């Protein structure tokens, strides 16, 4: 897993393979507070992740819930097929989770 | 009779009177007790039941069985999600489901998959308070089909009597028997790529081959989603291959087994708050693909994913 900060808008770009061993580090990075936008959004671009597995999605959704407790949110920019998978399992409207398409949260 | 535990019964019937002798008390008692009741059967049976129930006719949920989950993993999911919506825990009440499978016109592999799911419901719905009765009409189901019904259900209900089935088979044993049927050989002309290497290259290969075989970009991308969840079970000494088969696109992933795989992994929809069960991501694989066959033996795991082909005219759900 490779996490690259991006500046404008502030956020992270994730690339590479995300293994089970990476999930706690991913969660910590998202909760860390160093990449929030001024309105408390943690933006993560995962469109280049080749295989986005359920275990990773579960971590993202749970982390979004933790962010929501602090009035923050997790904005995910995903490839359409990965966004479909989150909707299919019924987690797309989880607390704190925002699905984005390019720069426009939906 | 009702209790809070999971029950999964067959109900073999020979005519409409026998169907109603079983179905009417099952539904009427549920309605009287305030229990959620779902009936999925033929339109004719739904009409018969409504006519027989009189003032209770509007007291239950119903659906034509053909439209309540087209494939086994969809059907299992629909049952589980119905239970999730309707269950009120701690009430000592069941969630009742009368679910008649459709068998006419199915291929041999389809029939095997549906029977396997019937057996698997004993696992997938265990721990719930679903009371499920699966009617089997002897006028349309073969003797062999009836015999398998008694292997996949612990009891057979006649009227209101529950008769334990002496032929009941443990679901894992039943799945093992189903999964012992050999898969057709991979065609010699199928293009193969090693799993060892960059995952981006693997993904590009799958998309490229799928498009070459006639899938559009969207379906090819969905195939990669289905593939992703299988990789955890394979060491990278294996391979991936795609080929056309009977109008579908088959994707094979094979390699030394990296982990044990429960035969019913991926039939229950994952829950965000539940502890991660290894393999629960296969639920996504099973929702995307027309079928998912798994063979494990001699330290090797083989997945055969079957995607609807380019000429499939059914409405795609994504």
TrEMBL record, chain A:
Domain MlaB-like STAS: 12-80
Signal peptide span: none
Gene3D superfamilies assigned to the protein according to its UniProt record, in alphabetical order: STAS domain
InterPro entries found in the cross-reference section: MlaB-like_STAS, STAS_dom_sf
Pfam (any one): STAS_2
SUPFAM superfamilies: SpoIIaa-like
Protein's UniProt name: STAS domain-containing protein
Naturally occurring in which organism (per UniProt): Umezawaea endophytica
From TrEMBL, chain B:
A matching Pfam family: MEDS
Organism: Umezawaea endophytica
Protein name: MEDS domain-containing protein
MEDS domain mapped to chain residues: 7-154
């Amino acid at each position: 897993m490779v996490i690259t900060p991006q500046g404008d808008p502030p956020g992270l770009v994730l690339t590479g393979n995300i293994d089970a061993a990476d999930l706690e580090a991913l969660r910590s990075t998202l909760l860390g507070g160093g990449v929030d936008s001024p309105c408390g959004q943690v933006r993560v671009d995962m469109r280049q992740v080749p295989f986005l597995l359920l275990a990773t999605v579960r971590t993202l959704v749970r982390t979004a819930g933790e962010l929501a407790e602090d009035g923050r949110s997790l904005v995910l920019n995903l490839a359409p097929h990965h966004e479909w998978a989150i909707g299919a399992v019924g987690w797309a409207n989880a607390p704190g989770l925002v699905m984005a398409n390019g720069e426009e949260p939906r | 009779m009702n209790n809070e535990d999971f029950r999964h019964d067959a109900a073999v019937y020979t005519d409409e009177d026998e169907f109603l002798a079983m179905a009417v008390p099952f539904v009427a008692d549920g309605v009287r007790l305030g229990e959620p009741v779902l009936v999925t059967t033929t339109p004719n049976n739904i009409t018969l039941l409504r006519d027989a129930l009189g003032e209770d006719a509007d007291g239950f949920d119903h659906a034509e069985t053909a439209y309540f989950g087209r494939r086994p993993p969809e059907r299992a999911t629909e049952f589980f999600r119905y239970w999730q919506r309707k269950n009120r825990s701690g009430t000592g009440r069941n969630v009742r489901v009368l679910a008649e499978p459709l068998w006419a016109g199915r291929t041999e592999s389809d029939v095997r998959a549906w029977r396997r799911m019937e057996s698997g419901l004993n696992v997938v719905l265990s721990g719930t308070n679903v009371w499920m009765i699966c009617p089997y009409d002897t006028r349309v189901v073969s003797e062999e089909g009836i015999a398998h019904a008694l292997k996949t259900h612990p009891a057979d209900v006649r009227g209101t009597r529950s008769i334990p089935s002496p032929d009941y088979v443990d679901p894992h044993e039943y799945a093992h028997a189903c999964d012992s049927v050999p898969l057709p050989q991979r065609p010699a002309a199928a293009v193969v790529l090693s799993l060892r290497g960059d995952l981006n290259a693997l993904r590009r290969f799958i998309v490229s081959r799928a498009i070459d075989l006639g899938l559009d970009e969207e379906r090819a991308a969905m195939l990669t989603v289905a593939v992703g969840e299988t990789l955890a079970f394979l060491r990278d000494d294996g391979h991936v291959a795609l080929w056309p088969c009977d109008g579908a696109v088959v994707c094979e992933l094979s390699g030394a087994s990296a982990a044990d795989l429960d035969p019913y992994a991926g039939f229950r929809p994952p829950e965000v708050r539940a502890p991660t069960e290894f393999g629960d991501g296969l639920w996504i694989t099973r929702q995307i693909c027309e079928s998912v066959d798994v063979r494990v033996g001699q330290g090797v795991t083989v997945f055969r994913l079957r995607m609807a082909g380019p000429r499939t005219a059914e409405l795609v759900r994504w």
